[in-house]
Amino acid sequence: MQTVLFHSTIYGPIHSRRLGMSLGINLMPNDGKICSFDCLYCEAGFNAQGAGKDGVPSREAVKRQLKRKLEEMKEQGQTLDVITFSGNGEPTLHPEFKKVVEDVLRLRTQYFPNAKVSVLSNSTMAGKAAVADALRKVDNNILKLDSAMPRTFRVLNRPVSPNCLPEGVIADLKQFGGQCVVQTIMVRGEYNGERVDNTTDDELDALLSAYLQIRPREVMLYSIDRKTPAENLEKVSKEELERIAQRFRDSGITVQVNA
């Protein structure tokens, strides 16, 4: 089984195809995965690997480790485009997420004031007031919506809660009033005998309807880039991503393609 990729709270910097030179913050355990989704394509593997024994890092530990890393980078004359919340699961599940975000924003301003702060979230906690408040404060509030059709949503993203459905996610994303970026992975394939494909005309029409309701600052379209825990998934080509992007752009949606 593919397992977690990040074994520290602060990792990198690494080059992100979407965000540039990125220093990562992993608010989940260093030895396991905790997520409210269990996506077929997740680079960190399936939730079945378990949450590990380390637990989530404390707010103070995150602040201390980030400060040390930023000081080191500054001393070495390194550049930094973005500080990104990502890692071994859903960062907004951290019990002190809002306070951690506030700490990170202060440290960013102190050491690398031109760097952005981004959160990569699966959107499941966006309806929580404290989480939504924190997401409004960051530079790049990047929220996942892979399908607006319930069956595909459940097969592809495999939400832990049976009550999590795309219409609820769309409603939560609308509350940001355009102060968000929606990220959507385009993928097709098969898992446990079930076909999954969010590139069909019906799927794209449903996504477009959702985007028009949410009115995000931008949509990020991308495809599989690394090994996935579900093996029978197909990488959608850049050419096809561009065709899909143009379909959305024709309706006034700003789209960035990352292939």
Low-confidence stretches: none
- For the report, how would you describe the main beta sheet? 8 strands, mixed
Structural class: alpha/beta
Shape: globular
Beta-strand content estimate: 15-25%
Calculate Rg over CA atoms.
18 Å
What is the number of helical segments per DSSP (H or I, 4+ residues)?
Answer: 7
* Quaternary form: single chain
Helix content: 25-40%
Distance between the termini: 25 Å
Mean pLDDT across the residues is 95
> Helix and strand succession?
EEHEHEHEHHEEEHEEHE
Number of strands: 11
Strand order of the largest sheet: 1-2-3-4-5-6-9-11
In words, what does this structure look like?
- The two termini are 25 Å apart.
- The strands form two sheets. The chain has an eight-stranded mixed β-sheet. The chain has a three-stranded antiparallel β-sheet with strand order 8-7-10, covered by helices on one side.
- The chain has helices at 59-75, 97-111, 129-137, 150-157, 166-174, 201-214, 238-249, and strands spanning 10-16, 20-26, 82-86, 116-121, 140-144, 181-185, 187-191, 194-197, 218-222, 233-235, 255-258.
- With 259 residues, it is of the alpha/beta class.
- Helix 1 (59-75) runs parallel beside helix 2 and helix 2 (97-111) runs parallel beside helix 3.
- 32% of the residues lie in helices and 22% in strands.
- It has seven helices and eleven strands.
